[in-house]
């Protein structure tokens, strides 16, 4: 190519637009373009609210964690059961999740974005008004996920927002269990999703959920946090209080188990953030604790039982090296047996650490993971049970707990000694965290999926009820 | 496609304040050859933009500001004075639609200029003010698309590359996917480029540093971006994008808040911040002059070193636009004022250079006599800046050549004027908390940045990389140029986040069956038996046992009860994959690369050439033709540009698109702008 010859004037004339996949969870909301391997946008579903100079301000995204603000309170539009409670705010949070990193606040006026030659005087003044009403998703189809027990009303509300508020040209609502199965390349699977607010077990057969078999319980990541808090209260040598980073000015190195000598910041009470903010930041520290310290007793048998060789499991656990953890105020300690105890109740309800102040009632045996799986299998046809057991898909960020899949494997082998049990859990952290999003990304980029979309026209014809008919 | 040549590569790196650009890669990479202020002025026609502020001049208009007269610094005179002799020969930008019709003088009109109907209208470039300027990038985000595209066009036209020029554009982290697509579309359709690469600024920094993993802290004008890059991959999740109110503007604001009572304007504070006397002292260092004894000492030292007679007033009050007593350097007030009155008629009549030279000479003589007198008064002890209670910096401003009577046909001319301004200990307080901290509860900007870094690194999914990320901090961006910034940031992190590996934990708790430590941690654990490189042991001199205990990635036997049935290998590997330890155990900055000599020279530039308001008037050749001579004085803060050059070389010349480093025109025509995401680096 000669540098002095102008290039051909052929220009791109197509209009390929990739769909947006939105996977709203209780703790985080994931959004990204279909066909990509991780969601580009990951924001907390929590949002902050505070009043500044008489105006109410909302904070979305990670900034909630980073900057403390006077009187800041933290809210979540989702209910603990995974169903939206505050629709107005859910809409805002979701909208933020794709406008912030993907689509931008609003598409520019095509006449003024510099891409089109505007002939003199051809710019009608009415264009200004049109631009303001431009909807954020006017040119992207949207695939959203939902939990398997989402009520009809909530589903209809979802399509209403997508179609009317966001103006998406095409929409589909998929069950996150199905999507997680797709992410592992399976059309039929038993999906065990360990999320922040709940654990769910979803039997999926040929890309459809088997509704009778869907089980869920509140023993998710937040429950584990409450167990850790309970542990801290009865901790020796002293009870531990978590002081989040924002309250610490500087910390000093202290020996293990020694009281902290940190310098704290003084925030005047009238400016102090709300208790909900502190709780959220404590959760940050707790999730670090979960990542670094907490471990699931790998089995075989319960932590309180004896191993096949006859030794007490607790004794074995005690003899394994402890893990140190340092809190934001500098207090540090090694956690030995306790780091197994905080998660044991996911498998053995009796092992729960009692805490009368916990927002979570003591778990029942039916809420534990093995029982959920058992109930889910009992709810489906006998013929497909072995097939499901051979395709157990583990997903959800809380399933990343050290040793979780090993224990699950042990439990399943004990309960179902006959059939072949096979757990598939991606080793890659991102694939585990974003299982249902990735499934959505795969689904929405399939050529054959195009006929599944609910188009704007169909929606206008049938109204929101179409979602029940089309998205099964 | 034929390979691209080094000299044909166009690199553009837009920032909120300055846009760096260069055509061609030099033999040894240099700092950006062109620095464009990132701002445009609305042109006469709505929707069009001019790179320079063009002002209409009407006879009878009073000079709006700068009643002080010029002094020695007349670098600009050739460019400025030669042009306006003829009528209507105002400096005219060479690009952009240029109809010389009566342009409403934005801003200036409101300044109380009396409007008069006149026969002749002159256009002049207004170098003194950037009033009315539109900054297309705000905190990295594109606030005004038209203006942004106009700026890109201006940069492109100024550098005027040949057709076969690949373009490398550095993307701001704040740009959304659709933003990137729109830019891609614009570049391909407007510039007809054969190849385009859009590279994330954090990644470019990594290329510049020659590292695959780093935590990039980019301190900009109004915001800070914190990005964790692992294995040349930008971690989008948890990335600190455009953390507002933490950039250079915060420091200027704070300085202004401190110094407003002393008559400092914003521009003064801006230049004070850029000057080398502004520092951030390590925590616990007493401010100089706080002790009564130190006071006298430093006082005299400071004043003597500037060669200025001690004044009665407590702090020097800098003359604000000449409305009160100016305290210029090297002269008592009276003389200064005298010098201020220039015989404009003499200049206009033609002999300007001669005239000015004469004045220079006179002044030089005066000051030299003065200097000798102070020198005799005794050699003061030279203290480091951080010990001095007061220090002065060179303040440069544009001053209008003033005429006593309004000379109708002479366009205003400006002269760069330098004077020294003395400041007290306020110069050490630029990052402290503002009196009105607004909506923040954090005590200073370092706390915000440190918290963001902590958050960002904790969000990296590959936990084994976190320790390395803490140990490879890269602080870039012109906001970080202020002396002591990086150190202060490191101190804050150490204070708040670095863990204290108290040795007692490990000695007492390591169980007896603890076998040989394997100091590798995390997911990337190599196959058992293969003792990998100790990449997780940062060189902070901790014994390996301790590290092993911290990382607690023991051989399986350590954790597993004896007699546990062995699991299949895939299980075993992922059983180990989730175990990792808390970070950071240490925090360090990366060493900048040394193999580009031009990049090594750090210097603090105080010239207004670096500021937005007067960026184009950097030298005699800074006429309408372009943004000045190659600028000096920009070091590793702009390493993003070095990275852009390295990446351009790799992507366009060496790799030639084999690994999809750039998007070619053919691919654009086939797949459209959204395909840029497959290439965007």
Automatic annotation (TrEMBL), chain A:
Swiss-Prot/TrEMBL GO biological process terms: chromatin organization; DNA repair
Keywords, ordered alphabetically: Activator, Chromatin regulator, DNA damage, DNA repair, Nucleus, Transcription, Transcription regulation
Major place of residence: nucleus
Function: Chromatin interaction component of the NuA4 histone acetyltransferase complex which is involved in transcriptional activation of selected genes principally by acetylation of nucleosomal histone H4 and H2A. The NuA4 complex is also involved in DNA repair. Is required for NuA4 complex integrity. Component of the SWR1 complex which mediates the ATP-dependent exchange of histone H2A for the H2A variant HZT1 leading to transcriptional regulation of selected genes by chromatin remodeling. Component of the INO80 complex which remodels chromatin by shifting nucleosomes and is involved in DNA repair.
Pfam families cross-referenced by the UniProt entry: Actin
Region (Disordered): 304-323
Name by which UniProt lists this protein: Actin-related protein 4
Complex formation: Component of the NuA4 histone acetyltransferase complex, of the INO80 chromatin remodeling complex, and of the SWR1 chromatin remodeling complex.
Compartmental location: Nucleus
GO CC annotation terms, alphabetical: nucleus
CDD domains assigned to the protein according to its UniProt record, in alphabetical order: ASKHA_NBD_Arp4_ACTL6-like
PANTHER family in alphabetical order: ACTIN
PROSITE patterns, alphabetized: ACTINS_2
Family, as annotated: Belongs to the actin family. ARP4 subfamily.
Thylakoid among keywords: no
From TrEMBL, chain B:
Region (Disordered): 47-114, 281-337, 352-388, 549-634
InterPro entries: Actin, ATPase_NBD
Organism domain of life: Eukaryota
Composition skew (Polar residues), residue ranges: 293-306, 575-588, 604-616
Basic and acidic residues bias locations: 47-59, 69-80, 357-368
Ranges of compositional bias, category Gly residues: 622-634
Gene3D superfamilies per UniProt: 3.30.420.40, 3.90.640.60
Family: Belongs to the actin family.
PANTHER family hit by this protein: ACTIN (PTHR11937)
Name this protein carries in UniProt: Actin-domain-containing protein
Organism, scientific name: Aspergillus coremiiformis
